[in-house]
Amino acid sequence: MNKTNQATRVPVIDPNGKPLMPTTPARARRWTESGKAVGKRNKLGVFYVQLTRSPSGYETQSIVAGTDRGKCFTGIAFQTKLATIALFHACLPGFYKSKNIGKKNQTLERQSVTGKMAKKAELRRTRRGQRIDRSKPFQIRNHRQKRFDNRRKKKISPSVLSNRQMELRILNEMALILPISEIRDEACGGNTKKNGFGISPVTVGQEWFRSQASKIAPVVEVDSLDTGKYRDRLELVKDKKNKAKQTPETHANDAISIAASYFIQYRAFNTANTHGHEWVGRCTVTPAPFIVLTRPKLFRRKLHQENYSKGGILKRLGGTITPFGFRSGDYVEASYKGDIVRGWIGGFTDTNMTKNVSIYDHDWSRIGQFNPKNVRLLQRSSKLCINR
Protein backbone atom coordinates (compact mmCIF):
# COMPACT_ATOMS: atom_id res chain seq x y z
CA MET A 1 0.00 0.00 0.00
CA ASN A 2 1.07 3.58 -0.56
CA LYS A 3 1.84 6.14 2.06
CA THR A 4 -1.14 7.99 3.49
CA ASN A 5 -1.73 11.07 5.60
CA GLN A 6 -2.63 9.01 8.64
CA ALA A 7 -1.00 9.99 11.91
CA THR A 8 1.59 7.82 13.55
CA ARG A 9 1.05 5.87 16.74
CA VAL A 10 2.16 6.54 20.32
CA PRO A 11 3.44 3.57 22.39
CA VAL A 12 1.44 2.72 25.52
CA ILE A 13 2.33 0.74 28.66
CA ASP A 14 0.12 -0.26 31.57
CA PRO A 15 0.70 0.88 35.20
CA ASN A 16 3.03 -2.10 35.75
CA GLY A 17 5.15 -1.33 32.68
CA LYS A 18 3.74 -4.00 30.36
CA PRO A 19 3.70 -2.88 26.68
CA LEU A 20 0.29 -2.49 25.04
CA MET A 21 -0.80 -1.66 21.52
CA PRO A 22 0.10 1.90 20.45
CA THR A 23 -2.61 4.52 20.20
CA THR A 24 -3.19 7.66 18.15
CA PRO A 25 -1.66 10.99 19.23
CA ALA A 26 -5.13 12.52 19.71
CA ARG A 27 -6.23 9.79 22.08
CA ALA A 28 -2.94 9.93 23.98
CA ARG A 29 -3.43 13.70 24.36
CA ARG A 30 -6.91 13.20 25.80
CA TRP A 31 -5.62 10.60 28.23
CA THR A 32 -2.87 12.87 29.54
CA GLU A 33 -5.19 15.88 29.85
CA SER A 34 -7.76 13.87 31.80
CA GLY A 35 -5.17 12.19 34.04
CA LYS A 36 -5.67 8.70 32.64
CA ALA A 37 -2.05 8.57 31.47
CA VAL A 38 1.31 10.26 31.96
CA GLY A 39 3.58 11.23 29.08
CA LYS A 40 7.21 10.06 29.21
CA ARG A 41 10.27 9.54 27.00
CA ASN A 42 12.54 6.53 26.97
CA LYS A 43 16.34 6.60 26.67
CA LEU A 44 16.08 6.72 22.88
CA GLY A 45 13.95 9.87 22.93
CA VAL A 46 10.69 8.14 21.91
CA PHE A 47 7.57 9.64 23.48
CA TYR A 48 5.12 7.18 25.08
CA VAL A 49 2.35 7.24 27.67
CA GLN A 50 1.88 5.15 30.79
CA LEU A 51 -1.65 4.49 31.95
CA THR A 52 -2.55 5.34 35.53
CA ARG A 53 -5.27 2.67 35.70
CA SER A 54 -5.72 -0.85 34.38
CA PRO A 55 -6.47 -1.04 30.61
CA SER A 56 -9.68 -2.46 29.17
CA GLY A 57 -7.79 -5.29 27.45
CA TYR A 58 -4.40 -6.78 26.69
CA GLU A 59 -4.98 -7.97 23.12
CA THR A 60 -2.14 -7.07 20.76
CA GLN A 61 -1.54 -7.15 17.02
CA SER A 62 1.64 -7.81 15.11
CA ILE A 63 4.42 -5.25 15.52
CA VAL A 64 7.52 -6.08 13.46
CA ALA A 65 11.01 -4.60 13.74
CA GLY A 66 13.14 -4.38 10.59
CA THR A 67 16.91 -3.87 10.58
CA ASP A 68 18.88 -2.68 7.55
CA ARG A 69 22.52 -3.15 8.50
CA GLY A 70 25.43 -1.26 6.99
CA LYS A 71 29.11 -0.95 7.82
CA CYS A 72 28.91 2.52 9.41
CA PHE A 73 25.15 3.07 9.71
CA THR A 74 22.10 0.93 10.47
CA GLY A 75 18.43 1.69 9.94
CA ILE A 76 15.81 0.22 12.27
CA ALA A 77 12.05 0.57 11.82
CA PHE A 78 9.02 -0.56 13.82
CA GLN A 79 6.00 -1.25 11.65
CA THR A 80 2.41 -2.44 12.08
CA LYS A 81 -0.12 -3.29 9.44
CA LEU A 82 -1.69 0.19 9.62
CA ALA A 83 1.11 2.52 10.74
CA THR A 84 4.84 3.15 11.13
CA ILE A 85 5.73 3.71 14.78
CA ALA A 86 9.37 4.85 14.86
CA LEU A 87 12.45 5.09 12.64
CA PHE A 88 16.08 5.05 13.77
CA HIS A 89 19.32 5.96 12.03
CA ALA A 90 22.15 4.55 14.15
CA CYS A 91 25.67 5.87 13.56
CA LEU A 92 27.73 2.83 14.50
CA PRO A 93 30.78 3.42 16.72
CA GLY A 94 32.97 0.65 15.29
CA PHE A 95 33.95 2.42 12.06
CA TYR A 96 33.81 6.17 11.66
CA LYS A 97 34.50 7.73 8.29
CA SER A 98 38.19 8.34 7.63
CA LYS A 99 39.33 11.96 7.56
CA ASN A 100 41.25 11.30 4.34
CA ILE A 101 38.45 9.91 2.21
CA GLY A 102 39.59 9.41 -1.38
CA LYS A 103 43.30 9.58 -0.57
CA LYS A 104 45.77 6.73 -0.71
CA ASN A 105 47.03 7.08 2.86
CA GLN A 106 43.76 6.76 4.74
CA THR A 107 44.00 7.04 8.51
CA LEU A 108 41.75 5.48 11.10
CA GLU A 109 39.36 7.80 12.88
CA ARG A 110 41.00 7.99 16.29
CA GLN A 111 37.73 8.05 18.21
CA SER A 112 36.26 4.96 16.52
CA VAL A 113 36.65 1.56 18.12
CA THR A 114 39.14 0.50 15.45
CA GLY A 115 41.16 3.67 15.98
CA LYS A 116 41.19 3.26 19.75
CA MET A 117 42.27 -0.37 19.52
CA ALA A 118 45.09 0.55 17.13
CA LYS A 119 46.32 3.28 19.48
CA LYS A 120 46.04 0.91 22.44
CA ALA A 121 48.26 -1.64 20.69
CA GLU A 122 50.77 1.04 19.75
CA LEU A 123 51.13 2.27 23.33
CA ARG A 124 51.33 -1.29 24.64
CA ARG A 125 54.21 -2.10 22.30
CA THR A 126 56.01 1.03 23.49
CA ARG A 127 55.64 0.07 27.14
CA ARG A 128 56.83 -3.46 26.49
CA GLY A 129 59.87 -2.14 24.68
CA GLN A 130 60.78 0.02 27.66
CA ARG A 131 60.82 -3.01 29.97
CA ILE A 132 63.32 -4.96 27.90
CA ASP A 133 66.99 -4.78 28.89
CA ARG A 134 68.66 -5.11 25.50
CA SER A 135 72.14 -5.31 27.01
CA LYS A 136 71.39 -8.87 28.15
CA PRO A 137 71.22 -11.97 25.98
CA PHE A 138 67.87 -12.59 24.33
CA GLN A 139 67.07 -15.64 26.47
CA ILE A 140 67.21 -13.70 29.77
CA ARG A 141 65.55 -10.46 28.68
CA ASN A 142 62.33 -9.37 30.32
CA HIS A 143 59.88 -11.13 28.00
CA ARG A 144 56.76 -11.91 30.00
CA GLN A 145 55.25 -15.25 29.14
CA LYS A 146 51.51 -15.75 28.68
CA ARG A 147 50.10 -16.48 32.12
CA PHE A 148 46.54 -17.41 31.13
CA ASP A 149 44.28 -17.60 28.11
CA ASN A 150 42.51 -14.24 27.95
CA ARG A 151 41.05 -14.75 24.48
CA ARG A 152 37.48 -15.14 25.72
CA LYS A 153 35.51 -13.22 23.08
CA LYS A 154 36.52 -15.77 20.46
CA LYS A 155 35.70 -14.59 16.93
CA ILE A 156 33.85 -11.28 17.32
CA SER A 157 36.17 -8.31 16.84
CA PRO A 158 35.66 -5.31 19.17
CA SER A 159 34.51 -3.01 16.36
CA VAL A 160 31.85 -5.43 15.08
CA LEU A 161 30.76 -6.26 18.61
CA SER A 162 30.23 -2.59 19.51
CA ASN A 163 28.12 -2.10 16.37
CA ARG A 164 25.89 -5.07 17.11
CA GLN A 165 25.52 -4.02 20.75
CA MET A 166 24.25 -0.59 19.68
CA GLU A 167 21.63 -2.22 17.47
CA LEU A 168 20.59 -4.54 20.28
CA ARG A 169 20.25 -1.62 22.66
CA ILE A 170 17.71 0.02 20.36
CA LEU A 171 15.67 -3.19 20.20
CA ASN A 172 15.86 -3.73 23.97
CA GLU A 173 14.77 -0.18 24.77
CA MET A 174 11.86 -0.32 22.32
CA ALA A 175 10.81 -3.75 23.61
CA LEU A 176 10.07 -2.08 26.94
CA ILE A 177 7.32 0.05 25.37
CA LEU A 178 6.24 -2.05 22.35
CA PRO A 179 4.98 -5.68 22.23
CA ILE A 180 7.34 -6.72 19.41
CA SER A 181 6.11 -9.91 17.78
CA GLU A 182 8.95 -10.50 15.30
CA ILE A 183 12.34 -9.12 14.25
CA ARG A 184 13.25 -9.21 10.56
CA ASP A 185 16.96 -8.94 9.87
CA GLU A 186 18.47 -8.39 6.43
CA ALA A 187 21.18 -10.87 5.49
CA CYS A 188 24.57 -9.27 4.89
CA GLY A 189 25.53 -11.96 2.38
CA GLY A 190 27.71 -15.06 2.50
CA ASN A 191 27.58 -18.15 4.66
CA THR A 192 28.54 -17.57 8.26
CA LYS A 193 30.10 -20.98 8.87
CA LYS A 194 32.35 -23.35 6.99
CA ASN A 195 33.34 -26.64 8.55
CA GLY A 196 32.00 -25.38 11.86
CA PHE A 197 34.07 -22.18 11.87
CA GLY A 198 33.12 -18.59 11.09
CA ILE A 199 34.54 -17.21 7.85
CA SER A 200 33.86 -13.49 8.25
CA PRO A 201 33.81 -11.17 11.29
CA VAL A 202 30.74 -9.41 9.87
CA THR A 203 28.70 -12.56 9.34
CA VAL A 204 29.81 -14.01 12.68
CA GLY A 205 28.68 -10.77 14.33
CA GLN A 206 25.37 -11.08 12.48
CA GLU A 207 24.79 -14.57 13.88
CA TRP A 208 25.65 -13.34 17.37
CA PHE A 209 23.21 -10.45 16.97
CA ARG A 210 20.42 -12.82 15.94
CA SER A 211 21.07 -15.15 18.86
CA GLN A 212 20.78 -12.21 21.26
CA ALA A 213 17.80 -10.62 19.48
CA SER A 214 15.91 -13.94 19.61
CA LYS A 215 15.59 -13.37 23.37
CA ILE A 216 13.34 -10.39 22.55
CA ALA A 217 11.26 -11.91 19.73
CA PRO A 218 11.62 -14.53 16.98
CA VAL A 219 14.17 -13.50 14.33
CA VAL A 220 13.57 -14.07 10.61
CA GLU A 221 16.23 -13.59 7.93
CA VAL A 222 15.27 -11.53 4.88
CA ASP A 223 17.27 -11.85 1.67
CA SER A 224 18.96 -8.58 0.77
CA LEU A 225 17.98 -9.13 -2.87
CA ASP A 226 14.29 -8.90 -1.93
CA THR A 227 14.50 -5.56 -0.10
CA GLY A 228 14.29 -3.55 -3.31
CA LYS A 229 11.02 -5.06 -4.51
CA TYR A 230 9.32 -4.43 -1.17
CA ARG A 231 10.63 -0.86 -1.20
CA ASP A 232 9.26 -0.31 -4.73
CA ARG A 233 5.91 -1.80 -3.73
CA LEU A 234 5.64 0.69 -0.84
CA GLU A 235 6.83 3.54 -3.13
CA LEU A 236 9.68 4.47 -0.81
CA VAL A 237 12.77 6.36 -1.98
CA LYS A 238 16.33 5.06 -1.66
CA ASP A 239 19.39 7.32 -1.53
CA LYS A 240 22.31 5.27 -2.83
CA LYS A 241 24.78 8.11 -3.42
CA ASN A 242 25.62 9.13 0.14
CA LYS A 243 24.58 6.71 2.88
CA ALA A 244 26.09 8.96 5.54
CA LYS A 245 23.17 11.38 5.20
CA GLN A 246 20.99 11.39 8.28
CA THR A 247 17.71 11.02 6.40
CA PRO A 248 15.13 8.21 6.17
CA GLU A 249 16.03 7.64 2.51
CA THR A 250 19.47 6.18 3.32
CA HIS A 251 18.66 3.28 5.67
CA ALA A 252 15.34 3.74 7.48
CA ASN A 253 13.19 3.24 4.35
CA ASP A 254 14.90 -0.08 3.71
CA ALA A 255 14.21 -1.05 7.32
CA ILE A 256 10.51 -0.27 6.74
CA SER A 257 10.56 -2.47 3.64
CA ILE A 258 12.14 -5.35 5.56
CA ALA A 259 9.57 -5.08 8.35
CA ALA A 260 6.72 -4.79 5.81
CA SER A 261 7.70 -8.13 4.28
CA TYR A 262 5.81 -9.67 7.22
CA PHE A 263 2.52 -8.15 6.01
CA ILE A 264 2.91 -8.29 2.22
CA GLN A 265 4.31 -11.09 0.04
CA TYR A 266 4.94 -11.62 -3.66
CA ARG A 267 3.38 -15.03 -4.21
CA ALA A 268 2.96 -17.29 -7.18
CA PHE A 269 -0.56 -18.15 -8.44
CA ASN A 270 -1.96 -20.67 -10.89
CA THR A 271 -5.39 -20.65 -12.53
CA ALA A 272 -7.00 -22.63 -15.33
CA ASN A 273 -5.94 -20.05 -17.93
CA THR A 274 -2.82 -18.32 -16.58
CA HIS A 275 -0.13 -18.28 -13.94
CA GLY A 276 2.32 -15.79 -12.49
CA HIS A 277 3.00 -13.77 -9.34
CA GLU A 278 0.93 -11.22 -7.45
CA TRP A 279 1.14 -9.11 -4.29
CA VAL A 280 -0.83 -10.41 -1.32
CA GLY A 281 -1.48 -8.54 1.91
CA ARG A 282 -1.63 -4.95 3.07
CA CYS A 283 0.74 -2.55 4.82
CA THR A 284 0.39 1.20 5.31
CA VAL A 285 3.40 3.46 5.77
CA THR A 286 2.70 6.60 7.79
CA PRO A 287 4.80 9.53 9.05
CA ALA A 288 6.79 8.53 12.12
CA PRO A 289 9.42 10.04 14.42
CA PHE A 290 12.86 9.86 12.81
CA ILE A 291 15.64 9.66 15.40
CA VAL A 292 19.39 9.81 14.78
CA LEU A 293 21.49 8.05 17.41
CA THR A 294 25.23 8.45 17.93
CA ARG A 295 27.61 7.71 20.77
CA PRO A 296 29.60 10.49 22.44
CA LYS A 297 33.22 10.34 21.29
CA LEU A 298 34.84 10.19 24.68
CA PHE A 299 38.31 8.99 25.58
CA ARG A 300 38.75 6.59 28.43
CA ARG A 301 40.68 7.91 31.39
CA LYS A 302 44.43 8.09 30.83
CA LEU A 303 47.19 9.44 32.98
CA HIS A 304 48.27 11.96 30.37
CA GLN A 305 48.60 12.67 26.67
CA GLU A 306 51.34 11.01 24.66
CA ASN A 307 53.10 14.23 23.63
CA TYR A 308 54.64 16.81 25.90
CA SER A 309 53.28 20.35 25.76
CA LYS A 310 55.26 23.55 26.24
CA GLY A 311 57.45 23.41 29.33
CA GLY A 312 57.67 19.62 29.33
CA ILE A 313 54.20 19.20 30.85
CA LEU A 314 52.03 16.17 30.14
CA LYS A 315 48.41 17.30 30.12
CA ARG A 316 45.60 15.12 31.42
CA LEU A 317 43.47 13.22 28.92
CA GLY A 318 40.15 11.41 29.09
CA GLY A 319 37.80 10.63 31.93
CA THR A 320 34.16 11.51 32.49
CA ILE A 321 34.17 13.56 35.71
CA THR A 322 34.34 17.35 35.78
CA PRO A 323 34.90 19.56 38.86
CA PHE A 324 31.61 21.38 38.18
CA GLY A 325 29.12 18.60 38.94
CA PHE A 326 28.69 17.49 35.33
CA ARG A 327 29.84 14.31 33.63
CA SER A 328 30.97 13.84 30.07
CA GLY A 329 27.95 12.83 28.02
CA ASP A 330 25.40 14.67 30.18
CA TYR A 331 22.63 16.44 28.25
CA VAL A 332 22.62 20.08 29.33
CA GLU A 333 21.17 23.47 28.50
CA ALA A 334 23.27 26.64 28.42
CA SER A 335 22.31 30.28 28.07
CA TYR A 336 24.54 32.69 26.17
CA LYS A 337 23.60 36.27 25.33
CA GLY A 338 19.90 35.48 25.57
CA ASP A 339 20.10 32.34 23.41
CA ILE A 340 19.47 28.80 24.64
CA VAL A 341 21.90 26.09 23.55
CA ARG A 342 21.39 22.37 24.20
CA GLY A 343 24.00 19.67 23.81
CA TRP A 344 26.24 17.16 25.53
CA ILE A 345 29.18 17.75 27.85
CA GLY A 346 32.44 16.73 26.16
CA GLY A 347 35.23 18.29 28.21
CA PHE A 348 36.21 21.10 30.54
CA THR A 349 38.90 23.64 31.35
CA ASP A 350 39.87 24.30 34.96
CA THR A 351 42.72 26.79 35.37
CA ASN A 352 43.31 29.91 37.44
CA MET A 353 42.24 32.03 34.47
CA THR A 354 39.48 29.95 32.85
CA LYS A 355 36.75 27.66 34.14
CA ASN A 356 34.31 26.38 31.54
CA VAL A 357 32.75 23.29 30.02
CA SER A 358 32.61 22.30 26.35
CA ILE A 359 29.23 21.45 24.82
CA TYR A 360 28.89 19.34 21.66
CA ASP A 361 26.02 18.56 19.30
CA HIS A 362 24.87 15.04 18.39
CA ASP A 363 27.50 14.78 15.63
CA TRP A 364 30.12 15.64 18.26
CA SER A 365 31.03 19.01 16.77
CA ARG A 366 31.78 21.50 19.50
CA ILE A 367 29.12 24.19 19.85
CA GLY A 368 31.21 26.27 22.24
CA GLN A 369 32.63 26.70 25.73
CA PHE A 370 30.36 28.00 28.49
CA ASN A 371 30.60 29.12 32.06
CA PRO A 372 29.38 26.29 34.34
CA LYS A 373 27.20 28.80 36.19
CA ASN A 374 25.15 29.27 33.01
CA VAL A 375 24.75 25.52 32.34
CA ARG A 376 21.76 23.51 33.60
CA LEU A 377 21.63 19.71 33.72
CA LEU A 378 18.71 18.19 31.79
CA GLN A 379 19.56 14.48 31.77
CA ARG A 380 22.38 12.32 33.02
CA SER A 381 24.51 10.55 30.44
CA SER A 382 22.94 7.54 28.76
CA LYS A 383 25.98 7.10 26.47
CA LEU A 384 23.83 8.21 23.55
CA CYS A 385 23.43 11.47 21.63
CA ILE A 386 19.91 11.84 20.26
CA ASN A 387 18.68 14.08 17.48
CA ARG A 388 14.90 13.92 17.07
Main-sheet strand order equals: 11-8-5-6-7-14-20
Total of helices:
6
| CATH fold description of the largest domain | Nucleotidyltransferase, domain 5
Q: What is the radius of gyration? A: 25 Å
CATH homologous superfamily descriptor of the largest domain? Ribonuclease H-like superfamily/Ribonuclease H
Structural class: alpha+beta
Characteristic key phrases:
single chain, 388 residues, alpha+beta, Nucleotidyltransferase, domain 5, SH3 type barrels, 2 domains, 5-stranded antiparallel beta sheet, 6 helices
Give a concise summary.
About 20% of the residues lie in helices and about 30% in strands. With about 400 residues, it is an alpha+beta fold. The strands form five sheets. The protein has a seven-stranded mixed beta sheet, sandwiched between helices. Strands 18-17-16-15-19 form a five-stranded antiparallel beta sheet, with no helix packed on it.
Written account of the structure:
- Helix content is 20%, strand content 28%.
- It is built from 6 helices and 20 strands.
- The mean pLDDT is 85.
- With 388 residues, it is of the alpha+beta class.
- Helix 3 (158-175) runs parallel beside helix 4 and helix 5 crosses helix 6.
